[in-house]
Amino acid sequence: MARRRAGAHAPEPLRATSMWRVDQVFLTRRGVRVEVVCSLVNDRGGLRNLTVTAPTENPVEAVRHAARFIAGRGNVSSARQARVRWAREQSTTAQDALIRDRLLEDEFLDEFEETLSAVRDQQR
């Protein structure tokens, strides 16, 4: 039987018993696609990152694709106040890394809420 080192533990899975919310969204160009990393926090202070590679190079379509994926999981309850930024390696200056893309935030939230509503309707 394999032993674990003291202090090492498996990461907590995304479970329906723990509600998660989207905190931040980072975009990175990967060739002709956009990779979207969603940073999730739960009600017990846990943190998880989910990565989705959108089948497009359009950032608006990419965040909408990611929002559908995240909201469709069923245990992510909110995306309000989620910040959308381009990843650090995509920025040309240190200041660029701090700039939020409010248009993409609105697109992400709209698609997330729409998908979450559809999921909840199916569960009824």
UniProtKB/TrEMBL annotation:
Highest taxon, organism lineage: Bacteria
Protein name stated in the entry: Uncharacterized protein
